[in-house]
Amino acid sequence: MKKVRIPLWGKILIGLFLGVVCGLILGDKALYLKPIGTLFINGIKMLIVPLVFSSLIVGVTSIEDMGKMGRIGLKTVIIYAITTIFAIIIGLGLSWITNPGVGASLQAASSANSAIKAAPSFIDTLVNMVPANPIGALAKGEILQIIIFAIFLGIAINLTGKKAKPVKVFFEGLAEIMYKLTSIIMAFAPYGVFALIAAVIGQYGIEFLLPLLKVVLTVYAACIIHSVLILGGSLAFVARLNPMRFFNGFLDATLLAFSTSSSSAALPASLRCTQKNLGVSKSISSFVLPLGATINMNGTAIYQGVCAVFIAQAYGIDLSISNYVTIVLTSVLAAVGTAGVPGAGLIMLALVLNSVGLPIEGIAIIAGIDRILDMARSTVNVVGDGVAAILVAKSEKELDVEVYKHKGVYLRR
Questions:
Q1: Which of 175, 276, 301, 314 makes an SS bond possible with 88, Cβ 3.0 to 4.6 Å?
Q2: Please, what are the domains in the chain?
């Protein structure tokens, strides 16, 4: 009898389902499983800095034409900016329809100011993008600084020419090693996902979500609408590609982002899916995806819009048209400024609330369901990264359409 092989995404999905069942049955005792999930997350985190650093350098050095690299970078930033603007508009628009804060009361909420770290200003972010100590940035995991250093180092390797070839070969070898290590760590994903989801359900339970169910449903609905209409639509009408093929080929990364609530944690899977399943060249994916994991905030923008409206309605505060415009602009600009800060979602939300004069104390309630919302927003962030990689690769004629159309026909580049 032929043995049935379950693909990784199928195993992750099984882990998700069993984790939910286990969390409901065990309750608080499911928290004892959390260390298993933590081990998996630590394994993923172990990959992030060397993977981002080596893959970006390989991506830059593989584009020897400096004009081409500038063109790819500009296209990537424009795509991320446009999709983020659409995301925040969808979040605000759907919130205006569902009125998630009507009937709620946050008057008893405790102050959350002490739990929120100050978000850096936009000017400070621009200044701090260039690391004074690149080794320190690598050690601390300052992703935005690592990306800038990797790009500059890759450009310098290209400009140096023949003498820098050993360094180029070294980073190519390091990147391949990290890809292999990624596949090893990813083999344990179903077990890690099972433990993480069981702990979340066991800790929060279904009852905890009921008072804020409308917020959760609004965020999830907005994320689905944005993913299907904007991201999927851009593939269909701009790139002339079947969006269902993308969602199928990118499923491993999508499920990992949902279960870990981390764009960075899903980066290894995103690189593998775009290259192996969807036919994106390594030079494009190695440049676009690490950049997107830092500055692309489609899902977070949706989250900010819904939560801002929820808090305003719960406190009985009417938002004007200018307030909505301010929320849109602040969300887009803050995407770069807080991407490398722990707890970026809540920090960005605090920044948005301050920009329109809403009580920051409302974050105390949002923080209670932040883990649930983070699953959706991280997933959309990662899907947006993948779509951008496809669009840039198609425009640069570095997308193998045959691989995209027929999964498993991977032509190594």
A1: 301
A2: 33-405 (1.10.3860.10)
Helix (H, G, I), strand (E, B) or coil at 280: strand
CA distance 67 to 79: 18
pTM score of the predicted model? 0.70
Amino acid at 375: M
Cα distance between residue 22 and residue 20, in whole Å: 5
Summarised one tens digit per residue, pLDDT across range 48-106 is 788 878 877 887 787 666 777 778 888 888 998 899 889 988 998 898 888 887 765 55
Q: Report d(CA 261, CA 393) in Å as an integer.
A: 27
Among 326, 375, 330, which Cα is nearest to 223's?
375
d(CA 231, CA 238): 10
* pLDDT tens-digit map of 287-345: 888 878 767 778 888 888 888 888 888 888 887 787 887 777 777 765 554 443 334 56
Contact 139, 232 (CB under 8 A): no
* Residue 285 near residue 275, CB atoms below 8 Å: yes
What is the enclosing helix (H) or strand (E) of 374?
Answer: helix 370-395
- β-partners of residue 399 are 280
